[in-house]
Amino acid sequence: MARELPKRFRSVRYFDRISSEIADIVRTEMEKLGFPGLTTSHFEILTFLIRTSKPINMTQIAKTIEKTKPTCTVLVNRLVKEGLVDRNPSPSDGREWAILLSKEGKKIRKKIVTISAKLLSLQTWGISKENEDILYPILDEIYKHIRNRKGIV
Question: Which of helix, strand or coil describes residue 72?
């Protein structure tokens, strides 16, 4: 009979599962809005643009969603193709692009905010406010620790 793994080993599997479930929710909601194939990263960019409500450059987007600038370029290109964002030369730096919500993007702003609020709702996560106060600092500590490591050994 196999010996039971310690809880920390069993709990690791939940990170990917939770991420997959959230990605499925975002994909489904974006499909309902008529934008199939958009990912959580596209959604993060849209919500960031909504929160800032001013043109943002790729460096700011990359830092906020914690992706590389080349990855953000691919993501923004898709959002431009979908008509949700506009990309204009930056007035302050000709090497950068100024990214902002397009007219089409502004039309779905309220729906994006609603989806975001549902994702962030404690009811969606199924935890109490007290447990959130415990869980978030732990997840943040784990994430920062793993992110700062360059390898397993």
Answer: helix
